[in-house]
## 1
Amino acid sequence: MDEYERITQLKIERNAIILAHNYQRGEVQDAADFVGDSFGLSQKAVSSGADMIVFCGVDFMAESAAVLNPDKIVLMPELNAQCPMAAMITPEALRLEKQKYPDAAVVCYVNTPAAVKAESDICCTSANAIKVVNSLEEEEIIFVPDRNLALFVAAGTEKKIIPWNGYCPTHHLILPGDILLEKEEHPDAKVLVHPECRQEVIALADKVLSTSGMLKYASQSGSKEFIIGTEVGLLHRLRKENPDKIFIPATKYAVCPNMKMNTLGSIIRALEKKEHIMKIPADIRVKAKLALDRMLEAGRGD
Ligand code: 13P
Ligand code: SF4
């Protein structure tokens, strides 16, 4: 029996599903029941009838699945798969920021710990950040933790955005020179970048999209070549779903080491041993769920 067959067997035994983010290793994506962006994964976690969810992504994603599904067991195969950007804000720091701007609403990117979500009015993902901000009554918005996404939102809204100073170390590896170099070699290619990229990179893009937004755009576009400014794991699906098109990573160095921790072996171990169960304290879970539910009600933007 190979690893895929063993995973299928265990999934049936446990009534489990496997959710994987678009940045996971190709073989992990191929073993998953659903592969998507943060928004799609949150939606899928809620709509699934499974008893157990094996979440192949990073900590904040498994936490969100646990917050949204208090009756299901959510397993995180590798405990060290933690998003460094999510660790750039704490609930204590956010409480201080709220004191400075008492009239502001707080929008938190899903890349945050559950305890920060619990201090926020609403969550957003890269797929719906502008839509979420524009849906609020308040004119001032504290936006945490990603500064680049906050500035991207600020350019697409009339509201005053107060950005936090966090960033994604992986997306910061993509430099304007990388895009310009690839553009020189592929002048007809469309440049698609993630809003976590540096402002100078965003300025060179044809489209700024979430990972699933890029998948949708690439499949519907008449263009044949695309320069992709995001974590390289997305190339697996882009190429698999569009075999007649050419996808060029902006840089091969844009690898998120945390996203790459999950393997087929760790999925098997997670299902066999029922580890590691994601547990969120009840007071945090209830408040964080409100912010996530509001985000899901707002819907996708791209
Ligand atoms: P998406 O929601 O676009 O998939 O992005 C999640 C993420 O962690 C980006 O670094
Ligand atoms: Fe976090 Fe960046 Fe990795 Fe996404 S790519 S999980 S934001 S470190």
Note: The pocket of 1,3-dihydroxyacetonephosphate (ligand 1) is lined by residues 22, 37-38, 111, 125-126, 168, 196, 210-211 (CB under 6 Å).
## 2
Amino acid sequence: MKIVNSWNDFDPLKRVIVGRADNCCISPSEPASEAKVPLDSPMRGMTGPRPLDTVEKANAQLDNLAKVLEDHGVIVDRPEPLQFNQAVVTPFFMTGSQFGCMPPRDVLLTIGSDIICASMSFRSRFFEHYCYHKNLREYFEKDPEFRWFYGPRPQLSDESYDMHYWDDVDGHEVTEEILLERTANLEMVTKEHEILFDAADVMRLGKDLFIQKGLTTNWKAMEWLRRMYPDFRVHSLNFPGDPYPIHIDATFVPLRPGLIINNPHRRLPKEQRAIFEANDWEIVDAAMPAHEEPPELCYSSVWLSMNCLVLDHNTVIVEASETAQLEQMDKLGMNVIPVPFRDAYPFGGGLHCATADVYREGECQDYFPNQVEDPTLITYADKRW
Ligand code: GLY
């Protein structure tokens, strides 16, 4: 029985994993995760299990999402939460607690009949893949074509990070302005010491993987994926304007073949558009978020407004309060299913983050047959590390 098959984010969705909020912790500060906590966030310095009432509210919205999906004929699998309030200790580092399993998209990368458990860049997320073992074992037992891979397990010692990234500059605290300059210059807290990636930095479009170079994914990971999939083209994208470039799915989101919405505060630079333009892909600005602030104790920005889940080329799930985004989807010809989800945001993101593809109908297609000079293309000869 075929269980695992997905080559993109828009073909008809038939099976998916939806995360859970149970036991989720605010992890202690560590070299990479400092980046995830905005400078002015009240979460700075807070650690430990999240308040139970917020867990219950988030789980109610996650369960409702699962039900909406089932009502649309999608099989829904759920992870097994760990006791995340336990330290992670390895020969190379230790950190006081783990994180959670609300966002399977961060951990699981589905490419055709393969699922790759990402290497992960945060120490607190080193063991998170275990939450999905039950699911992956089932797929392995029932689907003879399913291949279960791991990204190289990183050491995550201090050598993997710029340990001075968050230090004061000339006696002043790091400002957002400084961070914007750094990320535009591709200077990230994660270095190129070893292969590091989170699955949610990878946008899959058939034979092409477009990967964000940011705080959680480096070029060595792109080279590793290129070697894993020699028939594919792997591209490195970056989006100046984001002081915390973590995961591509609140920045650059495909809706159907030929159409992508792009965060207007984080536009893809002109030279990186060549491959899309040469193949008649339209990149349109996403609608403005409805909210000025993310919910309390949330790692992500207000741009979770565009972190939608596409069910097929004509149908998309959008967060229910995101009025402008709902309207834009309608204008773009999509049938829109509004689903309330803001209570789940603090646990790891939006509707796309909270899900991981298992099965979408369709095959691996080449959406970019016209090749042009493409500065985003990863090759060993042009290695940037
Ligand atoms: N990293 C996703 C966002 O908060 O915009």
Note: The pocket of glycine is lined by residues 246-247, 250, 300-301, 303 (CB under 6 Å).
